[in-house]
Amino acid sequence: MRVHYLQHVPFEGIGAIGEWARDRAHSLSGTEMFRRPEAGPPEVPRPDYLDLLVIIGGPMNVHQESTYPWLKVEKDVIASVVAANKLVLGVCLGAQLVADVLGGIVTEGAHREIGWYPVDLSEAGRAIPAFAGFPARFPALHWHGDTFGIPPGAVHVASSEACANQAFAYNDGRVIGLQFHLEETRESLESLIENARADLTVPGDRGAERWISTPGELLSPAAPFAPCRDLLFMLLDSMVMAPD
């Protein structure tokens, strides 16, 4: 299995997805989409040279092509990989990019959602093979302000109290978008907090931002990194084992 990932900022990597790839002896490569413009366009393998494309998160939004010209390149890459019937997993910004490519509407969400909050599978989501082993409700990390609309032809898979569209599946689950994060490790979350601390508010000054946690809450000893890792591995294994 040839796994390739697209990364948008230096401080937000693939986390436990790398552990899964190494544990399963899959080849793993990546493209840093944020490289300096003078270095030339980002080089991404053609669809024939990968089996699973993973698109991860980042602080920008899908409409900022004038600020981040590589977003247009990335959308073209996603479209070509989907058209080639390859596996695609988009996480957070990655899910929004996939949704945008498939015709979904990406907008600012009703709430910013940052913290460990439960996600609920929809009835239709439980019928998607990649989610077959998931509980009806499970914890996940959230760190987003934008949200995607479910693309035409896709299945609405999951929601949370703060965000109605938390996951979708397309092409019988060969393409999956997750607004939430299962891939975060304690180390990767520490890096995200250090570099995106401005997204967080302090206790007592949250106002309507009731879904924003403090660094202490995010890194609590009780934070469910291990259960999320197990769900991530289950999801990826199910995607890889799906018939062509």
Please give a handful of descriptors for the protein shown.
alpha/beta, nine-stranded mixed sheet, 9 strands, 244 residues, Rossmann fold
Strand order of the largest sheet: 2-1-3-4-9-8-7-5-6
Q: Could you say what the CATH architecture is?
A: 3-Layer(aba) Sandwich
Predict the CATH topology. Rossmann fold
The top level CATH class name:
Alpha Beta
| Stretches with pLDDT under 50, minimum 5 residues | none
Helix and strand arrangement:
Blueprint: E1 2-7, H1 16-23, E2 27-32, E3 52-55, H2 70-83, E4 87-91, H3 93-101, E5 106-121, H4 123-126, E6 137-148, E7 155-159, E8 167-170, E9 175-178, H5 186-195, H6 215-218, H7 225-241
Parallel strand pairs: 1-2, 1-3, 3-4, 4-9
Antiparallel strand pairs: 5-6, 5-7, 7-8, 8-9
